[in-house]
């Protein structure tokens, strides 16, 4: 069990919320997790139940159906979901897409979408990545041409988390010239004529999270679905990326903690050469390194969350958080699998899924190499 009930500025209210999240995951996720994994997606019923339990978009203001809470509650959901060993993309829906509406949406846009996002009736996706282009968002090519009272959208997107389930696409499009200054953000209803969902992509891991191709052919999006000012989309993305990257860092930290807890339990009961695997000095030294990194990691998560809540977390600091936590997660989980021996390579052990699911965290949300570039430019 993830032991973070009353530390780092968290109070009894946070502890009660964590208990609610933990109980929900035990009752509504655990019995269905293998089915979600094998099916490559998550039932819509799960989203509705998560909404009813208050797990979705807790930061949405009460005026729009939310709880009006701060990011610490998002962090609790992210920690508990990752510690449960699940890859369901609640973070995309709760930590990323609502922020575009909260910060840049009109009252009408907020009233139309936010209550349904909180309830789980409207599942969302952030739609940026395109075939042939990933981290370099300034090069995106999907176009949105203004025609009367609509934007006519043409293009293709890929690697879209929640792409199969999404009702609303918070989408980056090109409305102007080349480069960053020609990008806008549109709210695109996924059931509009001309929107086509492609394959549910066959990934190495994170099988509970549907990840899709999306295609747009002369899609007429009402002009009032433009977020903020036309051609200001890149600035919006840059403003909100710190929270997205911190969310990924938190997921990495909690996943690494689960891997550590799994391997400690496994090595203490697994016998080898007349003693347990834990009794070997090599095992204990590796576990000591893991424990040390986890201790440092949790302190850093708490520091970064506090900075974000205060509006002080810099893009370079968020990038550093994503870089360090995802790279550390990989080292911890890979060693945890190694210490499981042959059992670690068997899918019946949780460590195998944690290992598969971890690999992409060093890629999405900006690769580790891009994180180093962002940090380097800030020096």
Overview of the molecule:
The chain has helices spanning 12-29, 33-39, 44-52, 71-83, 90-104, 107-119, 233-269, 281-309, 315-339, 350-358, 368-378; strands at residues 124-127, 143-147, 150-161, 168-174, 183-189, 195-200, 211-222, 226-227, 271-272, 275-276. It is an alpha+beta fold and 379 residues long. It has 3 domains: 12-122, Butyryl-Coa Dehydrogenase, subunit A, domain 1; 125-229, Butyryl-CoA Dehydrogenase, subunit A, domain 2 (Beta Barrel), CATH 2.40.110; 234-378, Butyryl-CoA Dehydrogenase, subunit A, domain 3 (Up-down Bundle). The strands form 3 sheets. The protein has a 4-stranded mixed sheet with strand order 1-4-5-8, with helices on one face. Strands 2-3-7-6 form a 4-stranded antiparallel sheet, with no helix packed on it. The protein has a two-stranded antiparallel sheet with strand order 9-10. Helix 4 crosses helix 7, helix 5 (90-104) packs antiparallel against helix 7 (233-269) and helix 7 runs antiparallel to helix 8 (281-309). The radius of gyration is 21 Å and the shape is globular. The model has no long low-confidence stretch (mean pLDDT 94).
């Amino acid at each position: 069990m993830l032991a973070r009930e009353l530390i780092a500025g968290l109070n009894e209210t946070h502890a009660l919320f964590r208990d609610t999240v933990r109980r929900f995951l035990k009752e509504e996720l655990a019995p269905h997790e293998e089915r979600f994994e094998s099916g490559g997606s998550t039932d819509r019923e799960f989203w509705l139940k998560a909404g009813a339990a208050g797990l979705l978009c807790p930061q949405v203001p009460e005026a729009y159906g939310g709880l009006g809470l701060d990011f610490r509650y998002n962090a609790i959901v992210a920690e508990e979901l990752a510690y449960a060993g699940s890859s369901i993309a609640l973070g995309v829906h709760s930590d990323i897409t609502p922020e575009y509406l909260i910060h840049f949406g009109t009252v009408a846009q907020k009233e139309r979408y936010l209550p349904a996002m909180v309830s789980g009736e409207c599942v969302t996706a952030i739609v940026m990545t395109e075939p042939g282009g990933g981290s370099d968002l300034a090069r995106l090519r999907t176009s949105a041409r203004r025609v009367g009272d609509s934007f006519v959208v043409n293009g293709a997107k890929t690697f879209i988390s929640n792409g199969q389930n999404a009702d609303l696409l918070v989408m980056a499009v090109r409305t102007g010239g080349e480069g960053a200054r020609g990008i806008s953000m549109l709210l695109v209803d996924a059931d509009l004529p001309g929107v086509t969902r492609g394959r549910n992509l066959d990934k190495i891991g994170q099988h509970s999270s549907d990840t899709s191709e999306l295609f747009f052919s002369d899609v007429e999006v009402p002009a009032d679905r433009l977020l903020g000012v036309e051609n200001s989309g890149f600035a919006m993305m840059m403003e909100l990326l710190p929270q997205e990257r911190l969310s990924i860092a938190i997921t990495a930290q909690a996943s690494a903690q689960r891997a550590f807890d799994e391997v400690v339990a496994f090595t203490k009961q697994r016998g080898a050469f007349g003693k347990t695997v834990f009794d070997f000095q090599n095992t204990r030294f590796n576990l000591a390194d893991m424990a040390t990194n986890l201790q440092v990691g949790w302190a850093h998560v708490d520091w970064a969350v506090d900075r974000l809540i205060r509006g002080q977390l810099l893009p370079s600091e968020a990038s550093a958080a994503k870089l360090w936590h995802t790279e550390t997660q990989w080292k911890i989980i890979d060693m945890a699998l190694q210490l499981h021996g042959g059992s670690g390579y068997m899918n019946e052990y949780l460590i195998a899924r944690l290992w598969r699911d971890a690999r992409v965290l060093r890629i999405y949300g900006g690769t580790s190499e891009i994180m180093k570039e962002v940090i380097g430019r800030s020096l």
